[in-house]
Amino acid sequence: MAVLTPLQIKNLTEQAKQSKGLIPKSVLTPLLNTLQCDISTLLQALLPVATSFSQAPISQFNVGAIAYDKTTGNAYCGANLEFSHQALSLTVHAEQAAINNAWINGAQSVSVIAITAPPCGHCRQFMNEIVGADTLKIVLPALETDLQSLLPHSFGPKDLGNEFCLLALKTHEDIAFPEQISHQLAQQFMLAYAPYSNNPAAVEIKTASHGCFYGRYAENAAYNPSLSPMQSALSQLALAGLTLNCVELTSITLVETANGHNQKAVAAAVLESYCSDCVLQHVLVK
Ligand SMILES: [Zn+2]
Description:
By secondary structure, this protein is an alpha+beta fold.
């Protein structure tokens, strides 16, 4: 197995933090050449980088995952994110975080995911929603397998008549956004994946010194492992090594459709976990 030195892990973690959890092809290729290993082995060796972004105040059980997209050649970190004093069901799992990170960064497929622990049922179901789920390779500490083997006789998008999958590029019909919605937030909204509720939604977290972070709503055919846009955005913040408690906030905005209108409560619930007194701006569009 390829071994990265503690110094390499430290440097790669710092780089990943700066790029909000993205490990680009330009970093992976030289490592593959130097270590003379395959991508699965390298992803496994990089897992400590992803795990370092875990925020698990409840379980103290840190999980890391790295999704790899062979089309772009990039890898995307993910880590579990728990919310103190909130329902455990709001937790973002590492696999969700990695796939969300790939999606937010524009990946349209994930071919391999390496994880520090076997994926729970919730994550197997979440991963079953993505493009290419039937060939998704899963790399675990003691096993290389695929999602099909871990989730036989599965229930997925097609069972609800949905021909599109998570990560597929599909935007919503033209919408007129009010002025207070930035161009970037409008774009994130247009890329949200809400085939079951038809309520696309997105979040923008603006900070004074660390730039902006975005989250998109990602639904699931089984409904429960869906990822709300606020969880998605906070996960992106965590992958930059940050939390709401340690950044100077400018604004937090949730945009969703007036018809659907179902993300405000969950957004408020996860925000309550933090000391921030930042007011959530809630914007409805038609
Ligand atoms: Zn899980």
